Request: fold
Amino acid sequence: MSQDNGAPRWRLEWPTSSGKRPGKAQLKSVPEDFRVTERLWPDSELPGSVHGGAGEHLCVRLEKSGDNTEYVARELAALAGCKAFEVGFCGLKDRHAVTKQWFSLYCPGRESEDAALLQAIGARWPVLASGRHARKLRRGEHLGNEFDLVLRQVSGNRVDIEQALTLLGERGAPNYFGPQRFGIGGGNLERAVNLDPSRLNRKKGGRRGGGGSGSKNVLYFSAARSWLFNEVLAARVEAGNWFNGVPGEPSEDGQPTGPLWGDGGTLATGELAELERAVVSEHPEFERLFLSTRMKPERRALVTRPEQMNWQWQDDNALRIQFFLPPGQYATTVLGDIFELQDMSLSRDNKQES
Reply:
């Protein structure tokens, strides 16, 4: 997708479910307007299975604001005297928010030091719960996240907004990856085009060194994969069949899914495979990248369906919205299907940098 007229090289906006957004709003005016509570799977919920338990990992549930998950994990490793990769967590949480999530720290045979360690952690972040567990927490192991959000300076026809919210709760929204995954101006995509696929297997620096070149290569590769998924989903949205199955759908439950591209392309067959391959063939620079790897094709749901959704108008231009999402789905994607969002945290970042 190269252009010579000064326009962006990569598309970073995709069609909404209705073709328009009935409202505008400001998001993250203050961190307290974006609250996230992580929920673990019932069979590993903490502290229920951990309280009074034993194991090599000390698990702590923290409330944080102003710090992202990976930064907190590195700081916890320093406090615990373990390596960065020995700190586990289930998902990345925004620093411009008030979030509650679990971390596991590898501290074998050091139970007698737990109280002092928890006190040191508590001096940095409130410790909401803690306990010992037999294994490390891993990415995607959680049930999902509860969101409690406040949108401010909301404008638009209230009836249209409420109708769109009702439909969102019933049908869901296109499950796009958010633009932050692609870097500023699609910079991560540009780096993916120039990526040496053989370097994708060099993970040691990223996994154990906390941000080495290996992790960067995987980040760029993942950005390309996510962008192709968005392009296929956009084609389905424009065709009006994004929330229905298409012949050739490989999912066992018949739910619509899209490709996370890999060696061999897609797991879809028939009509759906033809559609997906046609979209991806428009981007030969990425096709070549995936042909050079051994990454297996995977699938991702085309629809994100917020559960337990409700909303209340706090005043004429402030709207509180609450819902639950499974892992790997994004509140900003859900809200972005209805509202043209202005992320106020970005302006705060720019002020701090200037």
Notes: The CA atoms of residues 123 and 296 lie 44 Å apart. The first strand starts at residue 23 and ends at 27. The mean pLDDT is 88.
